[in-house]
C-alpha cells in the first residue's frame, strides 16, 4: 500500500532474498558455477529465513539441497535432496525466535550438529564453508574453521552482500525512474 519500490532485505521468519542472492554469487565466484551442486544447509532450519530463501533460489538453479539439523529445528514438509556435499552453509541458532527447549544445550548442539574439522572431513576436499552471520563460534561452527582461508568463504559472503544489495537498490532506483507508478515487491 505504498507508492514506492520495496526491497525485502529480510522479514522475520519468512524470507531473506538478498542473502540468498549474495550466497549464490559467492558460490558462483568460488565454484565457477551455480548449478549441479549439492548444498548442505545445516542448523536451525525452522527459524531461518536464510534457509528458506536459499532453498527456493538454489533449488531453482538446479542444485540438490540437503537439510541437516535436529528434528526439533526442522520444519514439517521439507525434504532433503542430494547425497554429496560440495557446499556447507551453516546457520545460526535463532534463539530470539525460539519459544522453548528446541535443543538440550548449546554444548550438545555443537557436539552433534556444529561444524568442526572432523565433520568437514566427511565432505569433498573442495567443499567450501558458508555462514550468513552473525555466527555463534563454538555453537554452530568452530571459530578456527570459520577463519580458515582455505575452506571458509564467509568473508567473501560479507563482501558480496555489499555488492548485491547496492545492485538491488540501484535496480530499484532505475526502475522507479522509468515507471513511477509501479509498486515493486
Give the helices and strands, then pairings:
Blueprint: H1 17-31, E1 38-42, H2 49-60, E2 64-68, E3 87-90, H3 106-113, H4 117-120, E4 128-130, H5 143-146, H6 154-178
Parallel strand pairs: 1-2, 1-3, 3-4
Helix pairs in contact: 1-2, 1-6
Write a brief caption for the model.
The chain is α/β, with parallel strands linked by helices. It has helices at residues 17-31, 49-60, 106-113, 117-120, 143-146, 154-178, and strands at 38-42, 64-68, 87-90, 128-130.
Describe the fold and architecture.
- This protein has helices spanning 17-31, 49-60, 106-113, 117-120, 143-146, 154-178; strands at residues 38-42, 64-68, 87-90, 128-130.
- Helix 2 (49-60) links the parallel strand 1 (38-42) and strand 2 (64-68).
- The longest helix has 25 residues, at 154-178.
- It has 185 residues and is α/β, with parallel strands linked by helices.
- Residues 80-86 have low confidence and may be disordered.
- The protein contains six helices and four strands.
Number of strands: 4
Rg from alpha-carbon coordinates: 17 Å
What assembly state would you assign to the polypeptide chains in this entry?
A: single chain
pLDDT < 50 runs, ≥5 residues = 80-86
Which sequence of SSEs, written as H and E, runs from N to C? HEHEEHHEHH
What is the helical fraction, as a range of percent? 25-40%
Q: Total number of helical segments?
A: 6
Content of β-strand: 5-15%
Shape from CA axes? Answer: globular
Features:
185 residues, alpha/beta, 4-stranded parallel sheet, 6 helices, 4 strands
Amino acid at each position: 500500500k505504498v507508492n514506492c519500490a520495496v526491497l525485502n532485505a529480510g522479514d522475520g521468519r519468512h524470507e531473506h532474498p538478498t542473502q540468498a542472492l549474495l550466497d549464490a554469487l559467492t558460490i558462483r565466484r568460488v565454484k565457477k558455477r551455480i548449478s549441479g551442486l549439492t548444498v548442505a544447509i545445516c542448523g536451525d532450519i525452522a527459524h531461518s529465513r536464510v534457509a528458506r530463501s536459499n532453498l527456493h533460489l538454489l533449488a531453482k538453479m538446479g542444485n540438490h539441497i540437503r537439510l541437516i539439523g535436529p528434528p526439533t529445528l526442522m520444519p514439517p514438509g521439507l525434504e532433503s535432496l542430494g547425497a554429496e556435499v560440495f557446499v556447507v552453509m551453516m546457520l545460526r541458532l535463532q534463539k530470539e525466535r525460539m519459544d522453548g527447549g528446541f535443543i538440550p544445550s548449546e554444548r550438545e548442539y555443537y557436539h552433534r550438529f556444529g561444524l568442526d574439522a572432523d565433520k568437514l572431513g566427511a565432505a569433498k576436499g573442495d567443499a567450501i564453508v558458508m555462514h550468513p552471520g552473525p555466527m555463534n563460534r563454538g555453537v554452530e561452527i568452530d571459530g578456527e574453521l570459520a577463519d580458515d582461508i582455505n575452506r571458509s568463504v564467509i568473508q567473501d559472503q560479507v563482501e558480496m552482500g555489499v555488492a548485491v544489495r547496492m545492485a538491488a537498490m540501484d535496480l530499484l532506483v532505475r526502475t522507479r525512474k522509468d515507471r513511477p507508478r509501479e509498486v515493486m515487491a
